[in-house]
Write a structure and sequence with these properties.
The complex is a heterotrimer of chains A (301), B (267) and C (340). With 267 residues, chain B is of the alpha/beta class. Chain B has 2 domains: 22-101 and 229-261, D-Maltodextrin-Binding Protein, domain 2; 106-213, Periplasmic binding protein-like II (D-Maltodextrin-Binding Protein, domain 2, 3-Layer(aba) Sandwich). Chain B has helices at 2-8, 12-17, 32-45, 58-67, 81-91, 120-128, 154-162, 179-187, 216-220, 240-250, 252-261; strands at 22-27, 50-54, 72-75, 96-109, 117-118, 145-149, 174-176, 192-197, 205-206, 208-209, 227-234. In chain B, the strands form 2 sheets. In chain B, strands 1, 2, 3, 4, 6, 7, 8, 9 and 11 form a 9-stranded mixed beta sheet that branches. In chain B, strands 5-10 form a two-stranded parallel sheet. Chain B starts with a helix and ends in a 6-residue tail after the last helix. In chain C, helix 6 (145-160) crosses helix 8 (190-214) and helix 13 (286-293) runs antiparallel to helix 14. Chain C is globular and about 90 Å long. The chains are: A mainly alpha (301), B alpha/beta (267), C mainly alpha (340). At the A-C interface, helix 1, helix 3, helix 4, helix 5 and helix 6 of A face helix 2, helix 3, helix 5, helix 6 and helix 7 of C. Strand 4 of chain B pairs parallel with strand 1 (65-66) of chain C, so a sheet runs across the interface.
């Protein structure tokens, strides 16, 4: 009896362990394949050159720059909004209040909406509605804003990554000890002063984590920018909000499906994927490390 | 900047966009590579001119032309009457059509396929689903795996109208998001058949259609049945910088690039 | 108190304004949920009011001017494009079995697309569900400390893989590998797409299940162990059942992710809109259809509106799943433990 129980026990542990191992193996397998396929082609020249010869040679520089601009504009909008929302949720309303529950539900829903729906929304709301309104007001209906561009793509992406920021910042705010807040309030500081001088400095790490995670997510998503601003090829880097842009994830997509010569460009496809993967990996990893530090502080506090 | 406003007077839209020295080109993905090479070569010789090339598809290009979002529209199919109509209602112009290159649409077969060619009728039956086995067209006894382009491409529409004569594609056709994806799929699938532009056709073999292989000669004289023009559309007759660019494209220098990319010159 | 308020009135006013501003910003998420709902539906709505634009019968509008053609050049055959004729759109057309939106006689049947999405999602869940849940059980109940601490970042890395990277991997590596191994007739099919999708779904199922398992009160496990149950018995028969609502929520969220994911299915499923039972046939999903076709449609026509309608469907489905998941995690889990 005990023997068979022990055997079953070992089987259960073994089986669940195998499941855990499989998940880890998947990560290693994908990363190894892409690193293996792309490392030889990933040179400084590849990073710093523009695509040439009809995208069968050259590098991915404009795609890197486009991705950079995209995530910067996205963060400039998304991080403040996300941070303030998190402050509101944790400092102004009680956890159980109706308002907090409604907003939290909205944030969770936002996190669950498929990326492609954000793309449609970006097209319907930003490009068509906002763009047309702006053109009507400022350009007498001349086409200026009512077309895909980097601003609309960034705003769409900011919306998509908003929940990521909110969740991270909220978690960090929780690590600020209640005593500190009470001490500040007891000294006569108002709620806002307490937030600004005590809570915010204490949760800088969380805001940074949120921003990094949002950037990582934003750099990797392709579906939202398919119709809101990404371009196949541009000879120029974007320099106005109304310009379209090239983007790494989109570049991977078009190189694998629309290049002139699949075999010849395979190294480029691998190397582009590797650049994207390294970018998101580095970002995620630093976010994880940063968060681990915050958690340790919470434990210490 | 001044050009279009003179001819139509309606072109407030284009004003803000076609700022001095910038020509925007948008449209067919089939033509993106060609347009990009043209742009690269032209800009190398003419400093101060910027040519912005974006793809998206023939339909995207044409609507951009109608909306004023682009100066030149690349299209791998001629403009539809309905599109000319909306262009006319906005700019009182039916547009200017430039035949800029010729394309031999290819039918791809896997290298291992014993067949050398198909007739137009067989091709139609394969793509409408009436023929499902290679045996029926003289090949081995195996199922035909049909690949094609997404319905958003001009190639899809051209093939439907000229090979399928307006009938629907068989619904089991796998539509892939780009010609490279089709080539790749057929290259890896011994039972596959696909179609797309000749410029993309490397690594697989091209089927003879009605006994004629696509070549510079057969495409140029039109004996290869799947020949089509690649178009450029403008809102009005080109002047100034735009005219120089178009004339350059039609010149031997521009047409040489056409050949280099794998298409066929118009003249 | 009243005295104090008068003393610091201006100060309090500033405080009040700041609070309002913060509240306003916090409502942005809520506002945008509503806006997404409104704008995605707004574009789809005319389908049902019979106002969707129908192509007007075209009189010949005349040809475009031509430019740059050599006089007398032997013009080869030019193929006219056939114009599509369209019968008025009826909502019931969405229930047809064929998806042929760019046809001379367009058909907007969503059933094959819906079926395609369900097939891929099913495969993904069948693979990712057990793996994610049992991996979570392993880390929460059996794993040594180092394995538990190592697991989380690895899963987060997996969650951080851009879907286009997974799609690339599926298209270039996985598809050929699976075809060779299983002898699939079609290289790109629902199974291949589903397997690739499982990579994207595992992190969600794992994370939410792990949270649910970790939330089981220690007293429960300790009681079980004290009664003489072994560690694995406790894990399997006490902890796992107690966490069922959370795990159910995990599966629902995984379903939502798989159902709405676009790039992976666009690249790896073959995109053929067919209604077949086989999991190894190519499929076309709802999300991939939007991704592939949206860029080219004429704004405002029926095809455009049907694509927005698909988007609206995806929105409603994810909204519903999220609401149910929330309900299960919040209420059931709480109630259950309060009851204990």
């Amino acid at each position: 009896m005990t023997r068979s129980k022990g055997l079953v026990g070992r089987l259960v542990v073994g089986f669940t362990g195998a499941c855990a191992f499989l998940s880890v193996a998947a990560v290693v397998w994908i990363m190894a394949t892409i690193i293996w396929g792309g490392h030889t082609h990933l040179t400084w020249a590849f990073i710093s050159q523009v695509p040439s010869e009809g995208m069968t040679e050259g590098g991915v520089f404009p795609a890197i720059v486009g991705t950079f601009f995209l995530v910067v504009i996205m963060s400039l909008v998304g991080v403040p909004v996300g941070t303030i929302t998190a402050i509101y949720l944790s400092e102004y309303v009680g956890r159980q209040s109706k308002m907090a529950q409604v907003i939290r539900f909205a944030v969770n829903t936002l996190a669950g909406i498929p990326a492609i729906v954000f793309g449609l929304f970006g097209l319907g709301f930003f490009v068509q509605f906002s763009g047309n309104s702006l053109d009507k007001i400022f350009y007498h209906g001349a086409l200026h804003w009512a077309q895909p561009n980097i601003l609309w793509a960034s705003l769409t992406m900011a919306l998509l990554t908003l929940p990521v920021v909110i969740v991270s910042v909220e978690e960090a705010i929780k690590t600020v000890p209640q005593d500190l807040r009470e001490a500040s309030l007891a000294l006569g500081a108002t709620r806002w002063q307490t937030i600004r001088k005590v809570v915010l400095p204490g949760s800088m790490g969380g805001i940074l984590t949120g921003a990094i995670l949002a950037v990582s997510r934003g750099a990797g998503e392709v579906a939202p920018i398919l119709f809101t601003g990404a371009a196949y090829f541009l000879p120029q880097l974007p320099h106005r909000f109304t310009d379209q842009f090239m983007e790494l994830g989109y570049h991977v997509f078009i190189m694998t499906t629309q290049s002139t010569d699949v075999e010849k460009t395979l190294p480029i496809q691998y190397a582009t994927t590797l650049v994207l993967l390294l970018l998101t990996f580095t970002l995620n990893f630093s976010a994880i490390a940063l968060r681990a530090r915050i958690r340790r502080r919470r434990v210490a506090a | 900047m001044k050009l279009q406003s003179i001819t139509t007077g309606l072109l407030l839209g284009a004003l803000s966009l076609s700022s001095a020295g910038t020509i925007t080109v948008k449209g067919s993905d089939t033509m993106v590579i060609l347009a990009q090479r043209w742009a690269e070569a032209y800009m190398a010789d003419h400093t101060g001119v910027t040519i912005q090339v974006t793809g998206g598809g023939s339909g995207v290009g044409i609507s951009a032309l109608i909306n004023g979002a682009t100066d030149i529209c690349n299209a791998s199919r001629p403009m539809k009457a309905s599109e000319r109509e909306s262009l006319k209602s906005r700019y009182s112009s039916l547009g200017v059509e430039i035949k800029s290159a010729k394309d031999g649409l290819s039918v791809y077969l896997n290298d291992q396929n014993s067949l050398e060619g198909l007739t137009m009728a067989q091709l139609k039956d394969i793509y409408t689903g009436k023929i499902k086995n290679w045996k029926e067209v003289g090949g081995s006894d195996a199922k035909i795996v049909v690949y094609g382009r997404e319905n958003s491409s001009g190639t899809y529409v051209f093939f439907r109208d000229n090979v399928l004569k307006g009938e629907d594609y068989v619904s089991s056709m796998q539509s892939l998001p780009g010609t490279a994806a089709v080539v790749n799929a057929v290259a890896k699938d011994p039972l596959g058949i696909g179609f797309g532009g000749a410029a993309y056709g490397k690594g697989i073999k091209f089927a003879k259609i009605n006994g004629i292989a696509p070549s510079a000669e057969t495409v140029k004289n039109g004996t290869y049945p799947l020949t089509r023009y690649l178009y450029m559309y403008l809102r009005s007759r080109p002047t100034g910088e735009m005219k120089q660019y178009i004339d350059w494209i039609l010149s031997p220098a521009g047409q040489e690039i056409v050949t280099k990319v794998g298409y066929f010159p118009v003249r | 108190m009243p005295k104090k308020r008068t003393e610091k009135k201006t100060f309090r006013l500033g405080e009040f304004l700041i609070e309002r501003c913060i509240q306003g910003v916090a409502l942005i998420s809520l506002l945008f949920i509503c806006l997404i709902f409104v704008f995605v539906f707004r574009e789809a709505f005319p389908l049902f009011t019979g106002q969707a634009k129908e192509p007007v019968a075209q009189a010949d509008v005349g040809a475009s001017e031509t430019y740059g053609e050599e006089p007398g050049a032997a013009l080869t055959v030019d193929h006219p494009e056939l114009e599509q004729k369209q019968e008025p759109f009826k909502a019931r057309h969405l229930l047809a079995k064929e998806w042929q939106p760019v046809s001379l006689n367009p058909k907007y049947g969503l059933l094959p697309l819906l079926w395609g999405s369900l097939k891929v999602t099913l495969v993904a869940l069948l693979l990712a569900g057990p793996i994610g849940i049992f991996a979570a059980l392993y880390t929460s109940s059996f794993a040594p400390r180092w394995a538990r601490e190592g697991m989380k970042p690895v899963i987060e890395i997996l969650a951080g893989f851009p879907s286009v990277v997974i799609g690339f991997f599926a298209l270039v590596i996985l598809a050929s590998l699976l075809q060779r191994f299983f002898g699939f007739q079609y290289r790109l099919n629902a199974f291949t797409g589903g397997l690739a999708m499982a990579f994207a779904v595992i992190p969600i199922i794992y994370t939410v299940s792990e949270d649910a398992l970790a939330a089981i009160p220690k007293t429960l496990t300790e009681a079980s162990l004290a009664l003489g149950a072994t560690k694995w018995e406790t894990a399997l028969f006490v902890v796992l059942p107690a966490a069922t609502p959370g795990i159910f929520a995990a599966v629902l969220l995984g379903f939502g992710r798989a159902f709405g994911e676009t790039m992976i299915v666009l690249m790896a499923t073959g995109n053929a809109a067919i209604l077949t039972a086989s999991l190894t046939d190519p499929v076309r999903t709802l999300s991939a259809t939007i991704g592939a076709e949206m860029a080219e449609v004429v704004f405002g026509d029926i095809h455009y509106r049907v694509l927005f309608f698909i988007g609206a469907l995806l929105f409603i489905i994810s909204f519903g799943l999220n609401a149910i998941a929330e309900f299960f995690v919040r209420n059931r889990l709480m109630k259950r433990f309060k009851g204990i």
